[in-house]
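Interim report to the steering committee. The following record documents the input for Olfactory receptor (311 residues).
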Amino acid sequence: MKSQRNISEFILLGLSYDQNTQIFCFVLFLFCYVALLAGNLLILVSIQCSPLFHQPMYYFLSHLSAMDICYTSTVTPKLIADLLVERKTISYSNCMLQVLTMHFFGGTEIFILTAMAFDRYAAICKPLHYLLIMNRTRCHLLVLAAWAGAAVHAFPLFSTAISLPFCGPNEIDHYFCDIFPLLKLACTDTRITGVLVVAFSGMFGLLVFIVLFVSYGIILFTLRNMSAQGRRKSLSTCGSHITVVILFFGPAIFIYFRPPTTFPEDKIFALFYTIIVPMFNPLIYSLRNSEMKKAMKKFWCPLLFSNEAHS
């Protein structure tokens, strides 16, 4: 690869040049990242240490929380640290690693959201066969399939990134390394490569979004035949899932399903699926879910009271 590039690092231009804006963003994103870690760890531990872990929906939710932490941690700590320095740089190897890990963990999250939609479809549309359909072996296989599908999605993009030749310009107008900004810097004609990336990455996201949209459409149609109480409970659960899907996929499709180019607005849209959605996932899934709230109270309240008694 050394024969194809003469740069050892990239300069990230970040979100803003204004120092006051950078200080504000530092405080804001530090709070968001701490809240994200705390919220997702709270859900992860609460599910792992309660009987909910044996229910398929919460089994997938625990994996989603783990992926939220991993996915955001590929980008956010670097973003927060860069807001305190004037010259924001990232080495070539770390840049390529960021491309790989971001798309791998992001792809895993997308497939887990798909598994959660399948679980809700089985629970609402096939209630009599639900336990047979969503047995623990199938749940394990769906999670393994999510990891495998993410690898199939991420490694071609990673291979594309490391094969690009870089001859001089090394300024990336973003706060992290991604495939489109790198295509813009490559000292070769990347039009065909860009079209292939859109076809592979953009179409991948769009097709999964359509599958999820149709699945939840079928689920909502089926709710007409349920009792009022069952309808309310199912709508509460599915409403949480649909909210997360829209917030995550909307900005991602805008960035990846279009001609291979970059806009200044991309950085704002990227904040949604790299920081904002993973931060709000714990609130969306816990505040609208009575079983999740009960599990949290049952696990954490005795711990808090026992600590107070010891003190």
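The first helix runs from residue 19 to 48. The committee is asked to note this result when reviewing the revised timeline.
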